[in-house]
Write a structure and sequence with these properties.
It is built from three helices and 17 strands. By secondary structure, the chain is mainly beta. The chain has a 16-stranded antiparallel β-barrel. The relative contact order is 0.14.
Length: 400
């Protein structure tokens, strides 16, 4: 039996080595790609369930969890037509029920000017524009998630019909984008005007009953600017977003309220030539001033930061004569610290969340990747006790 298993594993390894790690061109200028991510929670604390008991035995709830999850399953179709003047992108989210993520067309007048229409990623924190399968760590920092979700329609107060809205970092609207050669680097910009609700959430009226959300021609406005490949080794960038809808009636809910959101961030990264070392950092902040409970106070202020250092070991492994090619095989070691502060209703106390993540990633081109992350968490709150829900996570991505 062991020899049979070994033969099967050897066959799988040979197939992976022979399969090119790139998208499939199904027609001239049309590429199809797909990937899936399976996550294993090897060990994760769940201190928030402390005090819960089973009835009628009164057994305490377990304080840890283990298990598997299909974290992501995506399929993407991208087309460049009319000598790459027209770009079309469709991306489906298949996990937790199928839904559209990216669905847009882009007409490129010049390298420095393209007009985009449809549903796509909003201008936001730098990692929110990074493809999911190319992340350094399994989880994004909480501040980057907040800068997307809380800039759109998600709320933190359970009595709101927008509570828990997940934006998938995308919204539907009109965008303008382009690259400008600065000589010392490339300036890349993205501007957007959109609904301000999130992916697959719509503004409608009598002509579209999906979500009846009335407003006076008000929108989400966002912009992001980056300077890439600055002097050959650095990157700087930032974003700003504003989202306002007055006197909203949602889904015939007989409730009228406002959306008033603002967020911004600045970030920078550097890659030290010839070492495989790269470092990046971000600071961002935002506010929700919907005044949902009509108390005259801002509903939420939030701000946070993250810093990371990642070392790609390919150069070192080649220098040590290990036979490592570094062409398709990549090995990264990294660490990240991130924190976010939340101040509700201008109260004097703040909720502070801190996370330290250390991990290793092996990638075979774009075809497969394995990540292992140890996550150390601290939560400080004026009301709740400290929650240190640490975790050991394993993530496997396969695709083409």
């Amino acid at each position: 039996m062991p020899s049979r298993v070994a033969r099967i594993l050897a066959l799988v390894a040979a197939l992976l080595a022979a399969w090119p790690a790139r998208s499939v061109e199904i027609a001239s200028g049309v590429d199809l790609s797909a990937f899936a991510r399976v996550r294993a929670s090897v060990y994760e604390q769940m201190e928030e369930v402390s005090g819960l008991t089973q009835k009628p035995s009164l057994d305490d709830a377990t304080g840890t969890t283990t298990g598997f999850a299909l974290d992501q399953a995506r399929a993407r179709l991208a087309a460049d037509l009319f000598e790459k003047r027209l770009g079309l992108v469709l991306e489906m989210r298949l996990e937790r029920g199928p839904a559209l993520l990216d669905a847009y067309g882009e007409w490129r007048f010049a390298p420095w000017l393209a007009l985009r229409l449809g549903q796509f990623r909003i201008p936001s924190a730098w990692e929110n524009l990074v493809a999911d399968r190319r992340l350094d760590f399994i989880l994004r920092p909480e501040i980057t998630n907040d800068l997307a979700d809380l800039s759109l329609s998600r709320t933190t107060y359970p009595s709101s019909v927008f509570y828990g809205n997940k934006s998938w970092r995308r919204d539907t609207g009109l965008g303008i984008a382009g690259d400008v050669d600065l000589g010392v680097g490339t300036l890349r910009y993205l501007g957007m005007i959109s609904n301000g609700l999130g992916a697959n959430l719509f503004v409608g009226g009598g002509s579209d009953k999906e979500f009846l959300l009335t407003n006076g021609a008000q929108f989400f406005y966002g912009a992001r600017v980056d300077v890439l490949d600055l002097f050959g080794f650095a990157r700087v960038g930032g974003h700003v977003c504003w989202n306002e809808h007055d006197n909203v009636v949602f889904n015939s809910g007989r409730m009228v309220y406002d959306l008033d959101r603002f967020s911004w961030s600045v970030d920078a990264g550097v890659e030290i030539p010839g070492t495989g070392l790269r470092a990046q950092g971000l600071y961002g902040a935002g506010q929700i001033d919907d005044d949902f409970d009509a108390d005259g106070r801002r509903d939420l202020d939030y701000y946070g930061a993250e810093a990371r250092l990642v070392w790609r070991l390919d150069l070192l492994l080649r220098a040590l004569g290990t036979g490592w090619t570094g062409e398709r095989h990549h090995l990264d070691l990294g660490g990240r610290y991130d924190t976010v502060h939340l101040v509700a209703n201008e109260a004097p106390g703040a909720t502070r969340k801190q996370t330290v993540t250390v991990g290793a990633t092996y990638a075979y081109g774009d075809l497969a990747a394995v990540r292992v992350n140890w996550i150390q968490r601290w939560l400080e709150d004026e009301v709740d006790p400290d929650l240190d829900d640490d975790a050991l996570l394993l993530d496997v991505t396969v695709g083409f």
